[in-house]
Design brief:
mainly beta
């Protein structure tokens, strides 16, 4: 009887390893074909770039290495499987003052029952300031006419714990991009998995993000920024978190994200990270957070070289 229980437990744990293995094969066996041609050969070929920006200052301070860390309301973006790993109701708010007069906002609410399941609703919104209208004969935009551009994404996520070791999840996104008075719509899906490894405190995560149809503006259309991610994290609750992600966007080369968080007196968190994304300056990120009772306030700083620095502030309310 005891041996049978042990065998069943072993098989359940192996389920998570096999699923991660399949995603690993997809990411590192088939996808390098794109990278072998030219590192940047696919750059600029995907639309809705705001879907890559992430949410939450904590994750940003960790360099974006959050695939295996996900355990709160922001899991709806990073890894929906994490929605099954917290209790209660969480409200997440974020403001990001980006470069070149670009603002990026997020609001989400999640309901979790740790060890069972969780679901969430969210909204991300990006808009740009006034952009000068240019023509072939007026490339400097001296007419004084302007237009705006904005992106919007509605999200519904669900996460389910399969057993003591494995959680899975999915996210449905409805995306709308607008340039002046022309709009395009698309629907996308994310798939996520989290599994606990035999080593205490170590978690493995995997996601496939932005599976869906194309954004179509009148005649032209853009594919969505499909991304494969694999991450590993080590955590000592309320003390230390270390995480590493490896990702492959369909429109760019492989990327590495890494970060660490150290918590003092269960109240103050200090974070540092690295993001190898070629849009960043030196790739380093930093941040801090403070938790007072059921409220967490987080800040992240990301340098963008000659484009300037970006600042991200977020808040998490636990009910």
């Amino acid at each position: 009887m005891i041996m049978g229980d042990i065998q069943r437990t072993s098989k359940r744990r192996q389920l998570g390893f096999w699923i991660c293995g399949l995603i690993l094969v997809q990411t590192f066996w088939f996808q390098p074909v794109l990278a072998q041609n030219a590192p940047h050969s696919q750059a600029g070929t995907a639309g809705a770039a705001f879907l890559k920006f992430g949410v939450g200052a904590r994750a940003t301070g960790l360099g974006g290495a959050y695939t295996a860390v996900s355990d709160d309301a922001n899991s709806m973006y990073w890894n929906p499987a994490g929605l099954s790993r917290f209790n209660g109701t969480q409200l997440s708010l974020m403001h990001n003052r980006w470069v070149q007069d670009i603002n990026y906002e997020f609001v989400g609410i999640a309901f979790g029952d740790s060890g069972a399941a969780g679901f969430a609703f969210g909204l991300t919104f990006l808009w740009m300031g006034d952009i000068p209208v240019t023509t072939f004969n007026d490339r400097l935009g001296t007419t004084g006419n302007t237009f705006t551009a904005r992106d919007l994404s509605f999200v519904f996520s669900y996460g389910q714990q399969i057993n003591d070791y494995v959680s899975v999840g999915g996210t449905l996104k409805r995306i709308k991009s607008t340039i002046d008075d022309i709009s395009a719509n698309a629907t996308a899906f994310d798939l996520g998995l989290l599994t606990s490894l035999p080593i205490q405190g170590v978690t493995l995560g995997a996601t496939i993000q932005n599976l869906g149809n194309r954004l179509k503006f009148i005649q032209d259309s853009d594919r969505l920024p499909l991304i494969y991610k694999l991450g590993v994290a080590y955590s000592q609750p309320n003390r230390l978190t270390l995480a590493v992600d490896l990702s492959k966007p369909i429109d760019n080369r492989f990327r590495v994200n890494a970060g660490g968080e150290f918590v003092l007196m269960k109240t103050l968190a200090l974070r540092g990270g690295y993001n190898s994304s070629n849009e960043l300056d030196n790739g380093f990120t930093g941040g801090a957070g403070v938790r007072i009772r059921s409220i967490s306030i987080d800040y992240a700083f990301v340098p963008f070289g000659v484009l300037g620095n970006t600042h991200r502030v977020s808040a998490m309310f636990q009910f």
